[in-house]
């Protein structure tokens, strides 16, 4: 066993010894929820995961307007939550070099003194559990996560309730199941992720993409390489779109600059590349100035859907029933049976949204 693994096991054993939570009945869960005045919501994963937690935030704000609400998220997602009114945003960075700042975050969570802690999916790391116990919440909920048992970091004993997480169920509904578990009546499919783009971001986007030129957005990257449609496919697709008179707008994170650089170098003019150049509110506003987005399974895909942009989503490995764009306006294309998606497959989907010549 490595030293880091031994340290994790030791830390987990201490947490379970000091902060073990008692199991609560359904009635006790409802009673503690009804008495709650402060709620700490953890959105501690990626962009897409945060977007899929927005309906949970929306329900909390609509049904419990007096609830003092704070969100804990990763530092690069902080700007995503700032447009929401009456919401405290606490953030942290990953890595040992950020340990002092993380300890300060735990102190902020301790001072907030939440009555309820909700861990939006996925919330399965030791770091997430430290945030949960630092909240001092008398009602801590998250979803079942079985692989922690194998990795030596099973911290399920720290939570008063573990909500079932069937893999075929969409993550938006799984997050809302946290509230259904404590007695909230939320009909299936009644809330979709929506993101309020700040006016300042809209003004900035109008400067960066002026006029009413017909534009199509492309995101050739993704969090994992195996989820990416081949860059050659995006290149051929982009050339066909240019032939139909569309200007192209490229998006991605800083780590994806090499991907979009290949497209930009071949396509030349009529291409705008914002890879790694804008924050999330600005990216959302820029997406709204495009007719549609063609994207791999990614956070930008979810962001576009949340601001009302038509999306053509390319799924090669992951399950769209679980983490696909949660909007009726999306077109999802899946690589099935080992057969890859072709440029013609994508163009047929594009033709359902905009005209092609």
Structure in words:
Helices cover 41% and strands 16% of the residues. The protein is α/β, with parallel strands linked by helices. The chain has 2 domains: 3-181, Rossmann fold (3-Layer(aba) Sandwich), CATH 3.40.50; 199-350, Glycogen Phosphorylase B (Rossmann fold), CATH 3.40.50. The strands form 2 sheets. A 6-stranded parallel β-sheet has the order 3-2-1-4-5-6, sandwiched between helices. The protein has a 6-stranded parallel β-sheet with strand order 9-8-7-10-11-12, sandwiched between helices. Helix 5 links the parallel strand 2 (68-74) and strand 3.
Short description:
With 357 residues, the protein is an alpha/beta fold.
How would you summarize the topology of this molecule?
Elements: H1 3-19, H2 26-34, E1 38-43, H3 47-52, H4 54-63, E2 68-74, H5 78-81, E3 88-92, H6 99-112, E4 116-119, H7 126-134, E5 139-143, H8 147-151, E6 161-163, H9 171-181, H10 199-208, E7 215-219, H11 231-243, E8 247-250, H12 257-267, E9 271-273, H13 280-288, E10 292-296, H14 299-306, E11 311-315, H15 320-323, E12 331-334, H16 343-350
Parallel strand pairs: 1-2, 1-4, 2-3, 4-5, 5-6, 7-8, 7-10, 8-9, 10-11, 11-12
